Amino acid sequence: MMSKQDLLLLMKARHSGRSYDTTRAISQEEMDILMEAVRLTPSCFGDEPWRYVICNKQNNQSAWEKLLNCLDESNQKWAKDAQILIISLSAKNFRKSDKGENFWANHDTGAANYALMLQAAAMNLMAHQMGGFDRDKIVERFNISDDFNVMSVIAVGYEEEGAEINSRSTNNLDWNYRQIADQSSCDQVIIITMSNAANCFIHIYNADGSRAEMCGNAARCVGYLIMSEKGTEHITIELVNKRILECFKVGDKSIKVNMGKPLLKWHEIPLSTECDTLHLPIELEMLKDPVAVNIGNPHIVFFVDNVNEIPLRNLGPKLESHVLFPQKINISIAQVEKSGEIALRVWERGTGITASCGSAACAALVASTLRGYLTAQQTSVDLPGGKLLIEWANNVFMTGDIGFL
């Protein structure tokens, strides 16, 4: 059963973007689920006055193009990438002739449209309703009877990868999630929705309201919750960057996550200019010569003799917004112990100093190995919030306990 807070978070996660993934089609099963959400919408006398003309680019491109050409030019520019275009209609009269004109039809159809859009958000689809179109063209080209009002056109599809996270300006911040983070004193807010590629999809919001691509600790927590609910010891989680994380239960409250392969090329980090990712040309006070690693999100790792001597609160903001990092950066200060363990402090992009960061711990092991500071590709990373076991064997694996506050 969905809680009140779950529903509010889903409503906040729903948005009307304009960047659709042109490579991902929508199945008939997915459309059936959207229409079932519409069918369950309440209406006056249960009359269900809504009607939908569905134009699927995959199986009826001519109808889809015909509807696209009915949109205003400004809407055509982005709606051309949506896999589905839908005409929303409302019946002017009740089905039973003795009831006459249905004055509530437009209201009920609007409610049905919202049900469709909310269900789309739950399925990690994006539905964008628009009013910028030529009604006369739609009536003529689709032979719409005078018994119906043309209400809106709805574009449906998967959102393009990175559509909201490439721009990290203040305009991209979600102040609702920032408020939740402030009230609960948490580093990140995680929204769990449905996925067609994994057991679930997680949306990650930083403390400042910006979206993040990856959170290893969140994956462990979500993995534990879903595995406990399903009574299984293995699940998968889809991220906004299309990475699929595998989670395994290896102890009572110990979760192991396959974080995927680290990315090491300059454009994969990404950096604003080509340079050696093992020796970035950055120097700020006592910090210099970091390694850049992408573990589903961008990191740099500095190596020092004593992590506690670094004024990370002062240096973190300057490094996070360095010109070399177009998407900003997560900063780790690493101290490789004689025992082979790594002591780590982290400044997290969009959050600040954090007690623990799973992807940073992974980046620290990869960077330490590449620099030759470690010979074993497995070690314990000690963060202020606790220890994580990190392994690197083609993919990077993170293991740690979860806890409840």
From TrEMBL:
Gene3D superfamilies: Diaminopimelate Epimerase, Chain A, domain 1, NADH Oxidase. Pathway: Amino-acid biosynthesis; L-lysine biosynthesis via DAP pathway; DL-2,6-diaminopimelate from LL-2,6-diaminopimelate: step 1/1. One of its GO terms (biological process) is lysine biosynthetic process via diaminopimelate. Keywords: Amino-acid biosynthesis, Isomerase, Lysine biosynthesis. It catalyses: (2S,6S)-2,6-diaminopimelate = meso-2,6-diaminopimelate. Residues 12-158 form the Nitroreductase domain. Its EC number is 5.1.1.7. It is an enzyme of class 5 (isomerase). GO terms for cellular component: cytosol. One of its GO terms (molecular function) is iodotyrosine deiodinase activity. It comes from the Eukaryota. Belongs to the diaminopimelate epimerase family. HAMAP family: DAP_epimerase. This is diaminopimelate epimerase. It comes from Trichonephila clavata (Joro spider).
